[in-house]
Amino acid sequence: MKTDSELQRDVLDELEFEPQVDHAHIGVTAKSGVITLTGFVPNYMQKIAAEHAAARVKGVRAIAEEIEVRLANDPKTSDPEIAERIVQVFRWDVSVPDDRIQVRVEHGWVTLSGEVDWNYQKKAAQAAAGKITGVKGINNRIEVRAEPSPSDVRERIMAAIKRSSAIDASGIDVTVSGHTVKLSGEVHGWNERRVAEQAAWAAPGVTKVEDDIVFA
To answer: Is Signal included in the keywords of this UniProt record (predicted)?
Structure first.
């Protein structure tokens, strides 16, 4: 006798195998041989085809069919649709680092998680998600990275410069004020100056680099 998880997997496989069914938005649960189909399809024929596909799986004793027919012009307010639209909005919003934010939607309630560098990015993600139709509420669990102190930033930049074989770190001085880094000292060529600048820009929280390095 199949377990519930085995039966669920078999029904999902059969729905995927059935060419008349767009299975992407169909959910399946199994309990003691009873299959429950949820989600939505674009027309009534697919609804019937999905039910028939599930019924022909060995071990299925009964089917509770809760699939909705969702027409193309109907509001896109199911949980998967809401999540997909939020992800799309994040991709277009330059204020949101979409690759570092996760989205979960349950009964219209959105949970945002992940980590960003700035608080405005956290606020921008919540504002963007809140514009999506069907969102009932937002639980914003995005964490803002602790901002490093100027001394930490300086140490990171100096460490990066010292690691580079292309520059003599003894001739470089770094000072940090707020989010601005000032480079001074002497180097032997443009390449060394470029390496120092790259190390400064790579440090977290840096928004401006003042390069006062001169050539020896």
So the answer is: yes
